[in-house]
Design goal:
single chain; 367 residues
Length: 367
């Protein structure tokens, strides 16, 4: 999930403050872009070479072990998956917080159309990122005063698309080995190719690289394939949310007045919770891992992230099969897809999706 400030340039760090001053003059909110710039610069200051930490017996043994495993995955990414061979994820930054940024999503009270924000290079996205939880909550509160539904989501990692050497973060090391490796593959895929203004394309492509890369990484280490239980749960949970979102969309575009739509919205969220409980107890044998999310307040903004990260993943799987699993050829094919006009690109993706015979939008990556 890329998050960008108003500047982003490939010059050395010494030039960054001057670039910031020049770039901020064209931004719509000086305070917002200032906190983005300061947050990114703080990450740059905290970076340490991973190799030095791993080689230092005075450092925490568990940290050294996790970083060593991350470097195995990082090397595999470049050597086996043809992902960029640079310093990203070969440096480490210790954070004093559980998330690197908090993203604020917003949607109207009676619509699922997201409030979008446009940035240089990254294009338009359906969120704004904040390096401090207080800043995110404050922004959400201001939007709520204007009648927006909002949702604040903690994000454990992001990509600058190769403009900076992205560090492994302490927030990432809480994950298990598979999720840590998958994250490295996912974010490096964004560095390999990124299409401005098409979040579903970018995230579906990176999710395919993540999942196929993880499968190949486990095979190279002599490990059995994952049993898929957690992913099946994620698929079913997301399908439940997408069905609810579709019903809400029909409600909001229907003939009821605003009072009727508000009542229908409340009823739909109660239906969603009831269907979730039935799925949990019937299919998951009481597994409660999504209880906290579903039992917290629900609104339109909270549904926005779902369905983007894997909407076209089956299409990219079909594209990978077309090139017989050749990674360089796959990236060339992805770039060719990205060069198509939006309508033609979607038509091609739909054809690939149909060839794979998988219902689109059935999977959501947990990020």
């Amino acid at each position: 999930m890329p998050v960008f400030s108003c500047l982003l340039d490939r010059f050395s760090r010494a030039w960054v403050p001057l670039l910031l001053l020049g770039a901020l003059s064209g931004c719509s909110s000086l305070a917002y872009y200032t906190q983005l710039a300061e947050g990114q610069l703080e990450l740059l200051r905290r970076r340490e070479p991973v190799a030095a930490i791993v080689a230092d017996p005075a450092r925490d043994p568990q940290l050294r072990q996790r970083l060593a495993l991350a470097q195995d995955a990082r090397s595999f990414a470049s050597q086996a998956l043809d992902l960029p061979d640079n310093r990203s994820y070969r440096v480490y930054a210790e954070l004093d917080r559980p998330y690197v940024v908090w993203n604020v999503f917003a949607a109207p009270e009676l619509s699922l159309q997201p409030l979008t924000h446009c940035f240089p290079i990254a294009g338009c996205v359906a969120y704004r990122g904040y390096y401090q939880l207080g800043g995110a909550r404050g922004a959400a509160a201001l939007l709520e005063q204007d009648g927006w539904d909002t949702y604040v989501a903690g994000i454990e990692a992001y990509s600058t698309l190769g403009w900076f050497d992205d560090p492994l973060l302490s927030s990432m090391l809480r994950w298990d080995d598979e999720r840590l490796a998958a994250l490295i593959f996912h974010e490096l895929a964004h560095q390999r190719f990124y299409l401005a203004d098409d979040t579903a394309f970018n995230e579906s492509y990176a999710s395919f690289v993540e999942h196929e890369g993880l499968r190949q990484w486990r095979a190279a280490r002599g490990l059995a394939p994952l049993d898929g239980h957690a992913e099946r749960m994620r698929e079913q949970f997301t399908a439940l949310l997408l069905a609810s979102r579709a019903r809400l969309q029909a409600l909001y575009s229907g003939p009821l007045d605003e009072a009727g739509k508000r009542a229908g919205k409340a009823a739909e969220f109660e239906r969603l919770r009831a269907e979730y409980r039935a799925l949990r107890d019937r299919e998951w044998h009481g597994d409660t891992r999504y209880d906290a999310w579903i039992n917290a307040p629900l609104n339109n903004a909270k549904l926005l992230p779902f369905g983007l990260y894997d909407q076209w993943r089956p299409a990219f799987a079909a594209l990978f099969a077309e090139v017989h699993g050749d990674w360089p050829a796959f990236y060339r094919a992805v770039a060719a897809l990205g060069d198509l006009p939006a309508a033609q690109r979607e038509t091609r993706l739909q054809a690939l999706q149909a060839a794979n015979r998988v219902v689109p939008g059935a999977v959501q990556q947990a990020k």
